[in-house]
TrEMBL record:
Lineage: Eukaryota, Viridiplantae, Streptophyta, Embryophyta, Tracheophyta
CDD domains according to UniProt: SGNH_plant_lipase_like
Protein name from the UniProt record: GDSL esterase/lipase
Molecular function as annotated in GO: hydrolase activity, acting on ester bonds
Signal sequence interval, chain numbering: 1-24
Annotated keywords: Glycoprotein, Hydrolase, Signal
Record family assignment: Belongs to the 'GDSL' lipolytic enzyme family.
């Protein structure tokens, strides 16, 4: 019988050929060094940030929903937030990319929308850990159950509209004027739609490599692939609504290289060396992530054509992460721990047990999170998020640049 990796790889490659070209190596972005670009600095007139997404950028909404279950059960308490003095609802040991971006723009940290006592003059964060691009009904039609929050991208968009209307902004023109001075982040979101499809079909009986588990893995892969066009459409439809409301600067991130994520690597437990690339990442899963990214970039090009006056940036999380992974040893990370979770259990190559996630009884936390890329096998450490922010917004991995910083 062909290996799981080979079968999934063939299927994914076939789909990518249909979808469109995808380059294996991303050319290094060209830095903008002109004096004019440097003078554009200081926040480029941005006075607010509005963010939509999931656990990669939630700064406390799930905590306030009180709906943390399953793999997110322990994210609202220590050791999450241990680097910044306590848990805040951020799924990391400390700050996230959205925090560092706000700091770099000279703005306050973005407060969660559900914190009704917070100052939201400089924007609001609508992201909720566990959120999906598609709503629970749409996913249920595909046989995918949403185990956490029901605050999908559509719900977050409604919150945004309510917020804009309720904060002394009575007319659509006033909203347009406010958005003209704002940066709008549409994601990252969509990863959980795929996570839940894979999770529902994960191998049973300790991951034994038998025909039954092989069938479950193939089913999960097929269900996830079927979701891709719908997920991308949901993201770009939300972006279109925001542009119609007056947004002039949008960032739409792509998916991370799933084949480099410790939780996926641990769950796949693939024994065939040919299934891995030179970075130690699973080729098949990375091709799946790129399938999403290729379709998303095609839709973003259509948005740019339809809204030529707006800056619509694609944030290349995939290649920014790959670059960080390749440079890990040179940038102070422990090269031997780049695929391991700082917080988890099980040891081994990945230190991840999806049935006992970070914070659960029996899990341990590394002494130096700043030497790890992954905090809990799913989410990154504060230091990794800082490096990702630099790559995306200071070194050209978000293009065209949504904001120009001095170099």
């Amino acid at each position: 019988m062909a290996t799981t990796a080979h079968t999934l790889l063939v299927a994914l490659v076939s789909l990518l050929v249909v979808v469109g070209p995808c380059h294996a190596i991303r050319p290094m972005p060209r830095p903008t060094t002109s004096l004019a670009a440097q003078r554009m600095a200081t926040a480029n007139g941005i006075t607010a940030i509005y963010n939509f997404g999931d656990s990669l950028s939630d700064t406390g909404n799930l905590l306030r929903e009180g709906d943390a279950t399953g793999v997110l059960k322990y994210t609202t308490g220590l050791p999450y937030g241990s680097t910044i003095g306590g848990a805040t609802g951020r799924c990391s040991d400390g700050y996230l990319m959205i925090d560092f971006l706000a700091k770099d723009l000279g703005l306050p940290l973005l407060n969660p929308y559900l914190n009704k006592d917070a100052d939201l003059k400089h924007g609001a964060n609508f992201a909720v850990a566990g959120a999906t691009a598609l709503d629970a009904v749409a996913l249920a039609r595909r046989g995918v159950v949403v185990p956490h929050t029901s605050s999908s991208l559509g719900v977050q968009l409604e919150w945004f509209k309510e917020f804009m209307s309720a904060n002394n902004t009575k007319s659509s023109q006033e909203i347009r004027e406010k958005l003209a001075q704002s940066l709008v982040m549409v994601g990252e979101i969509g990863g959980n739609d795929y996570n839940y499809a894979f999770q529902a079909n994960k191998p049973l009986a300790g991951g034994e490599r038998n025909l039954y588990n092989f069938g479950r893995m193939v089913t999960g892969a097929v269900e996830a692939m079927v979701l891709v066009p719908e997920v991308v459409r949901s993201i770009t439809s939300a972006a279109r609504e925001l542009l119609d409301m007056g947004a002039t600067r949008l960032v739409i991130p792509g998916n991370f290289p799933l084949g480099c994520v410790p939780s996926y690597l641990s769950a796949a437990n693939e024994k065939d060396p040919a299934a891995y690339d030179s970075n130690g990442c699973l080729i098949g899963l990375n091709l799946f992530a790129q399938m999403h990214n290729v379709l998303l970039q095609e839709q973003i090009r259509e948005l740019r054509a339809a809204y030529p006056a707006a800056t619509i940036a694609y944030a290349d999380y995939f290649y920014a992460y790959v670059q960080m992974l390749r440079d890990a040893g040179k940038t102070g990370f422990d090269k031997g721990s780049v695929m391991k979770a700082c917080c988890g259990t099980g040891g081994g190559a990945y230190n991840v047990d999806m049935d006992r996630m970070c914070g659960a009884p029996g899990t341990t936390v590394c002494a130096r999170p700043d030497q790890y890329l992954s905090f809990d096998g799913v989410h990154l450490t504060q230091r990794a998020y800082r490096v990702m922010t630099d790559l995306l917004y200071h070194k050209g991995f978000a293009s065209p640049a949504p904001v120009e910083f001095p170099r």
